[in-house]
Amino acid sequence: MTDLVNIPSASLETATQPENLRRVAIDPLTRVEGHGKVTLLLDEHDRVHQVRLHIVEFRGFERFIQGRPYWEVPVMVQRLCGICPVSHHLAAAKALDVIVGARTLTPTAEKVRRLMHYGQILQSHALHFFHLASPDLLFGFDSDASRRNLVAVAQAYPDIIRKGVLLRKFGQEVIRVTAGKRIHGTGAIPGGVNKNVSRAERDALLTDIYQVIAWSREAVALARQLYEQDPALYGEFGTIRAHQLCLVRADGAMDLYHGGLRARTADGETLFDHVDYARYWEHILEEVKPWSYMKFPFLRALGPEQGWYRVGPLARVSLCDTIPTPFADHARREFLAYADGVAARATLGTHWARMIEMLHAAEVIKELLHDPDIHGEALVVQGERAERGVGVIEAPRGTLIHHYRVNEDDVVTRCNLIVSTTHNNQALNESIRQVARRYLDGRRLTEGLLNHIEVAIRAFDPCLSCATHALGQMPLAVELVDAAGQTVDRITRDVPTAC
Amino acid sequence: MNTFQLDGEEIPFEPGQTVIQAALAAGHYIPHLCYHPEFVPHGSCRLCTVRADGRPTAACTLPAQPGLKVESETEELNDLRRTLVQMLFAEGNHFCPSCEKSGNCVLQALGYDLGVLTAGFRHFFLDRPVDASHPDILLDFNRCVLCKLCVRASEEVDGKGVFSLAGRGIQRRLIVSAESGRLADTDVAVTDKAVEVCPVGVILRKRVGFRVPIGRRRYDLRPIRAQALEDAPRRPEHRHE
Ligand code: SF4
Ligand code: FES
Asked: pTM for the full model?
């Protein structure tokens, strides 16, 4: 392992010589409208000491939802994210199941929701990999920004992109059939679903599912091939030693829809396992920092300095004991074994893990399509009302927590959301710092550095759409601040990478 | 039988009928919002504006007269209607994708019917708290289009007078007849006509939400033009078209 990955994380917020490191309290409002903003703070030797990714996101929404009737929430929350609205839809519905006392859903409701969720995983992972990340990966991180877009990739690699587009379309079709609409669906309601899947809808999806599985297997092979182009680079680029968190099924298998929380340290030591997420706050705390709108969650057992962690495909594929579908599990074992596990720790290994999950999603969709329960008529259950409900799901980019309080008048009085990008907040900063340390040349920001930062962010998050509201694009501003607190350089990219 | 002309066609009518009643009964749609076949016309929204012998008039309050020349489906009038719909959207909070009334909402259906594709006006972005005090009924004041249908229904059908409109101009708003101002303290019941009649998402039965999927709702199945004709009392010869 290189020295890049061994910087103790404590130095992030606790400088050894704080007197030489001017803390600049950056008003989060100064961010460039519609841009993700990255601030690189230098120490007195002009080394990148700290990275701050500024994202304006969800706290406004948490207030916005207060005072609204609870049954509106699963539909309303889809406005939070243009890429994975369905994840918010389902996480909210799961939280509200608790509120309406639906302890166990009907088999139809449970399976239709799962189908919806795995359709979402499939479409989002396809979008992330083919549409948004493939230009970086196929053309190289240094390639001309104007070339790094889907159109250019489609010209150079038409077959790959055609399949990517069709994979995504299939996922969207699964969503349409289960949620009622491709976007802003209403399928999941408190206590169940509002529609089943008809036999005609099922038959239409079954026609394509085997092709989808075959292409997803090819996608895993492609992700591996890309990694193998330059294993040394892929292994270390933006790579960090991170604790990890995800949901796992009761038997330890991967389950992206439901499970208990598992967390392991970077060394593989289990911190907690099968924790009932209804009490997530006993294990995950959130810190607020003056320079950011985003919260900084941390694992309580390790404290705010050391307790930051990573969620998402890499965490899930490496934390689960098995993937309960054959092709994906085979791929998982190959991934974990690759170069003694280096790929499974690498930030850029996330793309490979993502494709393994996409394959898993395709296999799960196939199983569910063969399950007659999806045609059932019993859609909703209810029981004794509760005041508080927590819903957790593994969204495409990682663990997603929705937490509501609803009063006896049926109105939301409190809402707390921890979205994947928030969980990954510090991990993202760390990863960008590795890249910046390696690629920052003196006191000048270059296009090349910007490109590399983008590539690191994209391993976690396709386009920061939550922050920039620019779906499929990553308008990014990077700012370099020296030890004296002076902004010494600044660079902005508006060029969209077409989606 | 007496007739008048609507967009060049002869429309028969019975004495006492308004232009909109006769038109709908004869299978001709004139866009409308505050008009409802079961209630005395109110004439406030102006969506039903037609030109009668050249003069702009609300078709819902205009008595049909023999030989009257009425224009309705003209570029000019539909432009006006579009503008009115845009203004109603701007004045309230109508975020259709997350509104539970979507697909059952007359305002939204009119928007589609008239081809309202842009906002047109700066939205007010209201933030009026909902009244959730009643165990079975929710009031979301952000969406009221001041059509007064609930007022009329509560008075005329339910015999209660639960709802009224207060204030003038831009201050005009829906209120309920309780000292506390809370719906729970009125004698409203979930079975009241007033609860059923709201054309938009203000007066809502609680906990219904999205139980009926989008795509299977009233105006998803039949556009408002066809639905309004279906709902109107029809002349016998038009009943089974
Ligand atoms: S509450 Fe509904 S029915 Fe009553 S005036 Fe407002 S829009 Fe019309
Ligand atoms: S429908 Fe005639 S004025 Fe409203």
From this structure: 0.90
